[in-house]
Design goal:
The protein is about 70% helix and about 0% strand. The chain is elongated and about 165 Å long. The two termini are about 35 Å apart.
C-alpha cells in the first residue's frame, strides 16, 4: 500500500525503521521507534514516519513527536541566539558602554529564552561581564585616587603646623608622591574604559588634580621663603603662621599674637538686671531639659540653639550654679543629638545598601520596571523620615541619590516601553471600534441571532484583551466603544425582549398545565418543544435564561412530583411483594459483585421465584368461599385491576346469598376454581436489545374464542349474542359468555421494584457474559500453550472452547500429537477471512489472491465452513510467535460465534 502524499511507500518505511509498522503490539512498536531514533535519522524521514504512524498508534508516535518538537525548539533557539548575539556584539563594539544596557541585555535575553549557557552567547556574556567589571573597577580606582589627593593635601596641611625644618625634611617625599599621583591619574584617564564612565568622575578627578597642584605649589613656595628668611634676617617671613613665629623667635622678636595686658576688673552688676537675665536663661533651660528628657532630637536641638542665643545676651549676668546647669543641659543635648545622628546614619547606610543592591541582584532575579519604581519610592520615603529625626548627612545622601538614579534608568526604560505599548493598544482599540461599526453595517439584516451574539461576544473579548491604556485614554475610548456596541446589539436586544415576552407566556401556560387536575403529557411535551425552539432561536444572557427556565420548569416538575407521590402512595399500599422483589434484587447485585457465576445464577433463580410469587399469591384468594366474592370484587374494582364487569344478575344473586348468610340460611357450597386464563401481556422492558419474555402457549392473537370449555357450556357467540360475545340489544347474555373469569394476577410492581429487578437482571447477564468471555480467553490461551509445547493433553475440553464439537477437538489433539508438518500460510488466511479480522500488511497480496482463487471455486466450502479443519492444519505446523498471534486473533471471534 503506497501513500500518494509521501516520498516512500509503507513497506519501505517499515524497512527503514526496523519493522515499526509490522510490530504486533504497541509496546514492541514503541521500542522499535526508540531504537530507530537512536541512529539519528534525518528530520524529513522522521516527519514522514510520524505522519504515517500517528494515525495508527499515537502512543508509539509520541517519541517521534517529542524528537521533532526538540528539533523545532533547537532551530528556534538558534534564531534567537543569533539575534541576541548580534545585539551583544553591537554593545561590545561601542566605545562607551552603558552598564545598565549590558545588564538589560542579559535579563532580556533570558526572558526571550535565548540559550545563554551555549556558544556563542556564553562567550559574549562573559565578555560583557568582563567589560562591565572593568568599568566598575575603573570607577573604583577613580574614587580611590580622588581620596588619595585629599590625603596628600592633608599631609601638606599637617606639615604647615610643624616646624619649617620638619617640612623641609619631608619635602622631597611629598614631591615624589605628588608626581606618582599625577602619573596614576594619567593612567586612569588613558584606560580604554574611561569613556564608559560617568562624566562626573572626570570632573572630580580634574578638580582633585588642580587642587593638589595649587596646594603643592603654595607649600613649596612658602617653604622656600622660610629657608631664605632663616638665612637672611632681612628677608620677608613666610605666610605660614607657625613658621613665621619660629623665625621671629630665632631673630629675637616677640610673637605676632602676644597676649594683651590684663583688663581692669568688671564693675558690679545691678541685682534687678541679674534676676531678669537669670529668669530668661532659666526659661530656655527648662525647655531644653524637657526636650532632652523626652528624647526629641529635633526639639532639643532647637531649644539648645535658643539657649545659646540667650547666653550670648545674658551670659555675663548668670551665676555659677545656673551656668553649671546650662553647661550640663547643653552637654546632654549634644549627646542626644549625637546618638540620634548616629542612629539616623545607621538607617541611612542601610538605605544606601538597599539602593545599591537594586541593580546588583542575582541572575534571573532582576526587578521589573513597576517593582523597581515601587522600591525607589519606598526608599526615598524612608530617607525623608530619617532626615526628619536628625542632622542631614550629605555624603550618604549623594551615594543614595546616585544609586537611586542608576536604578531609575530601569524605570525609565520600562515607562518608555509602557508608553509605546499604550500607544499601540490605543491604535488597536480604535481599529477594533471601526471594525465593529463595519461589521454592524454589513450584518444589519442577518437573521441568525446566535451567530450574531457569538460574534458580539468575540468582539467584547477582543476589547477586554486589548491591552492596558491610561485612564485618560480609556475614558476617551470607552464612550466610542459603548456607542458602537449598543448599535450592534440593537437588533439582538429587540429580539431578546420579544423572546422574553413569549417565554413569559409559555411560563403562564406551564403554570396552567401544572395546576390542572389531570396532567396532559402531550401538551407538556409540545410546550417543552416550543420552549427549546425559542431557546435555540434567540440566545439570552445565561443567568436570565436559567432563571426563566427554572420558572418554566417548576410548575411542571411540581405536577410530576404530585403524580410520583400519588404513585408512591399506591405502591406503599401494596409494598409487601415489592419488598420481596427489592431484597432479591439486592441479593443479585451482591452476587454480581462477587464475580462467582454459580452465585449469580442462584440469585437470578431467587429473583425469578420472587417475581413468580406475585401470581402464586393470588391462588389462595381464588379458593375462598363464594360469600367473600362481593368484597373481593369491590376491592379489585377500586384498585383498577379487574378486566371485566360482573353481570347484574350475578351481583344480585351473590348479594342475596350474602344477605341469606346473615340470616340463618347456610352459605352455598363454593364452586370449583376454573382453569386459569393464560397471561397474554405483562409489563416488560421495551428498550432496544432487551430480552423479550416468552409468549404464552395459549391465548395468542388469532385463537378461537368460541371454543367450549370443559364443562360443555354453549358457545360464546350463540344466538343470544354476536360472534364477539357481546350482548345484542334487547337480548340477555353475558359479555364473556360461559368463559371462566380471568385469573387474578396480584398487585402490580412499583416503579422502584421494577427498575431494581430489571437493572439487577441486566447486570447479572453482563457479569455472566464477562465471566464467559474471560473463561473463553483463558481456553484459547491454553490451546496456544499446548501448541507451543506440542502437548495434546493440555488442550482444554470442548465445553470450555465454546463452539467446538468433540470431533473437532479430537482432530486438534491428533494434530498436536504428530510431528510438525505443513505450511500454515493458506490456512491462516482462510481463518482470518472466516473471522473477518485484519491481515498483516505483508500478507494482503496473498489474501487477495486467495479470495480470487475462492471465487473460481464456487462449489467448494468456504472458509466459514472449514475453519475447524484450517485450525487443525495450523496446529499441525511448527509453532511461531507471529503465527500464534494471528491464530489467536482469528480463533477468538470464531469460538465466540454460534
Amino acid at each position: 500500500m503506497t501513500q500518494a502524499t509521501t516520498k516512500h511507500d509503507l513497506p519501505t518505511l517499515d524497512q527503514l525503521t526496523g519493522g515499526v509498522f509490522t510490530a504486533a503490539t504497541s509496546g514492541e512498536r514503541a521500542q522499535r521507534v526508540r531504537d530507530w531514533l537512536a541512529g539519528n535519522p534525518s528530520p524529513e524521514l522522521m516527519q514522514e514516519v510520524f505522519k504515517e504512524l500517528s494515525g495508527r498508534d499515537k502512543g508509539a508516535a509520541r517519541a517521534l513527536r517529542e524528537r521533532l518538537d526538540e528539533i523545532k525548539r533547537a532551530k528556534g533557539q538558534e534564531v534567537i541566539a543569533a539575534e541576541w548575539a548580534e545585539k551583544a556584539r553591537s554593545l561590545l563594539d561601542q566605545p562607551r558602554l552603558n552598564i545598565a544596557d549590558a545588564m538589560a541585555w542579559q535579563r532580556d535575553a533570558a526572558k526571550a529564552g535565548a540559550p545563554l549557557s551555549r556558544e556563542p552567547l556564553a562567550g559574549l556574556k562573559a565578555n560583557l561581564a568582563e567589560r562591565v567589571k572593568g568599568v566598575e573597577d575603573l570607577q573604583h580606582r577613580a574614587q580611590v585616587h580622588r581620596e588619595a589627593a585629599v590625603l596628600l593635601a592633608q599631609r601638606f596641611e599637617v606639615l604647615s603646623t610643624k616646624g619649617w625644618q620638619d617640612a623641609q625634611a619631608a619635602e622631597e617625599g611629598l614631591r615624589a608622591d605628588v608626581a606618582h599621583w599625577t602619573t596614576q591619574a594619567d593612567e586612569i584617564t588613558q584606560d580604554p574604559n574611561w569613556a564608559s564612565l560617568d562624566a562626573r568622575f572626570a570632573l572630580q578627578l580634574d578638580a582633585s588634580r588642580s587642587q593638589l597642584q595649587v596646594v603643592s605649589e603654595a607649600f613649596h613656595s612658602a617653604l622656600a621663603q622660610a629657608v631664605a628668611a632663616a638665612a637672611d634676617a632681612q628677608a620677608p617671613l613666610p605666610p605660614v603662621p607657625v613658621w613665621a613665629d619660629e623665625l621671629r623667635a630665632a631673630r629675637g622678636l616677640p610673637p605676632e599674637n602676644a597676649p594683651a595686658p590684663a583688663a581692669p576688673p568688671a564693675p558690679k552688676v545691678d541685682p534687678a538686671q541679674r534676676a531678669a537675665a537669670e529668669s530668661a536663661v532659666e526659661a530656655s533651660l527648662t525647655k531644653l531639659e524637657e526636650a532632652t528628657a523626652q528624647g526629641q532630637g529635633k526639639s532639643s536641638q532647637a531649644a539648645a540653639n535658643a539657649l545659646r542665643a540667650v547666653l550670648k545676651e545674658h551670659g555675663k549676668l548668670v551665676g555659677n550654679a545656673l551656668e553649671a546647669r546650662v553647661h550640663a543641659a547643653l552637654v546632654a543635648a549634644g549627646e542626644l543629638e549625637g546618638w540620634q545622628r548616629w542612629g539616623a546614619d545607621k538607617v541611612r547606610e542601610e538605605l544606601v545598601a538597599k539602593a545599591e543592591g537594586l541593580l546588583n541582584r542575582p541572575e534571573g532575579q532582576a526587578l521589573g520596571g513597576r517593582k523597581m519604581q515601587e522600591q525607589l519610592r519606598a526608599l526615598r520615603e524612608q530617607w525623608k523620615q530619617a532626615d526628619q529625626g536628625g542632622v542631614p548627612n550629605h555624603g550618604l545622601w549623594r551615594r543614595f541619590d546616585e544609586a537611586c538614579n542608576k536604578a531609575h534608568k530601569v524605570v525609565e526604560a520600562w515607562l518608555e516601553k509602557v508608553r509605546a505599548e499604550a500607544a499601540e493598544h490605543r491604535a488597536q482599540r480604535l481599529a477594533l471600534i471601526e471594525e465593529l461599526r463595519a461589521w454592524t453595517t454589513e450584518h444589519a439584516s442577518d437573521a441568525d441571532l446566535k451567530a450574531r451574539n457569538r460574534a458580539l461576544h468575540q468582539f467584547s473579548d477582543r476589547w477586554r484583551d486589548g491591552g492596558h491604556v491610561s485612564e485618560k485614554v480609556f475614558a476617551e475610548l470607552q464612550p466610542l466603544w459603548s456607542a458602537a456596541m449598543n448599535e450592534a446589539r440593537g437588533p439582538l436586544e429587540a429580539s431578546q425582549k420579544a423572546s422574553i415576552e413569549r417565554r413569559q407566556q409559555m411560563i403562564a401556560e406551564a403554570t396552567e398545565l401544572g395546576a390542572a387536575p389531570q396532567l396532559r403529557i402531550d401538551a407538556v411535551k409540545a410546550l417543552q418543544q416550543r420552549w427549546q425552539a425559542e431557546a435555540q432561536a434567540v440566545p439570552l444572557e445565561r443567568r436570565q435564561e436559567q432563571k426563566l427556565w427554572d420558572a418554566f420548569r417548576k410548575p411542571i416538575d411540581d405536577a410530576f412530583q404530585r403524580k410520583s407521590a400519588e404513585r408512591e402512595r399506591q405502591t406503599e399500599a401494596m409494598g409487601e411483594h415489592d419488598r420481596a422483589v427489592l431484597e432479591a434484587s439486592k441479593a443479585l447485585e451482591a452476587a454480581n459483585a462477587t464475580g462467582d457465576a454459580q452465585k449469580i445464577r442462584a440469585a437470578m433463580t431467587a429473583l425469578e421465584d420472587a417475581l413468580r410469587g406475585r401470581r402464586e399469591a393470588a391462588a389462595p384468594a381464588g379458593t375462598a368461599p363464594a360469600a367473600a366474592a362481593p368484597a373481593g370484587d369491590t376491592q379489585a374494582a377500586d384498585a383498577g385491576s379487574a378486566d371485566a364487569t360482573v353481570a347484574p344478575t350475578d351481583v344480585s344473586t351473590q348479594d342475596g346469598g350474602a344477605e341469606g348468610g346473615e340470616t340463618s340460611a347456610p352459605a352455598p357450597a363454593p364452586a370449583p376454581k376454573a382453569a386459569p386464563r393464560p397471561v397474554v401481556a405483562v409489563r416488560g422492558d421495551d428498550r432496544p436489545g432487551a430480552a423479550r419474555p416468552a409468549a404464552a402457549p395459549a391465548g395468542r392473537f388469532g385463537d378461537r374464542r368460541d371454543a367450549r370449555d370443559g364443562r360443555g357450556g354453549p358457545r360464546a357467540g350463540d344466538r343470544n349474542g354476536d360472534r364477539f360475545g357481546r350482548d345484542r340489544p334487547g337480548r340477555p347474555g353475558d359479555m364473556r359468555g360461559d368463559r371462566p373469569p380471568r385469573e387474578d394476577r396480584g398487585p402490580r410492581l412499583g416503579d422502584t421494584a421494577f427498575r431494581a429487578q430489571r437493572d439487577a437482571m441486566e447486570h447479572a447477564q453482563a457479569a455472566l457474559r464477562k465471566l464467559a468471555s474471560q473463561a473463553h480467553g483463558e481456553a484459547v490461551t491454553q490451546l496456544l500453550d499446548a501448541w507451543s509445547k506440542r502437548d495434546a493433553a493440555a488442550v482444554p475440553p470442548a465445553q470450555e472452547l465454546g463452539r467446538v464439537s468433540p470431533s473437532v477437538r479430537n482432530q486438534w489433539v491428533q494434530s498436536l500429537s504428530s510431528a510438525p508438518s505443513g505450511e500454515p500460510a493458506e490456512a491462516l488466511l482462510r481463518l482470518e477471512m472466516a473471522a473477518e479480522v485484519p491481515t498483516p500488511p505483508e500478507q494482503l497480496d496473498a489474501r487477495r489472491a486467495l479470495q480470487l482463487k475462492l471465487l473460481t471455486k464456487r462449489n467448494e466450502p468456504g472458509p466459514a465452513e472449514t475453519w475447524a479443519q484450517d485450525a487443525a492444519r495450523v496446529l499441525a505446523s511448527a509453532h511461531e510467535p507471529t503465527t500464534a498471534r494471528r491464530l489467536q486473533s482469528a480463533l477468538k471471534p470464531l469460538l465466540r460465534k454460534g
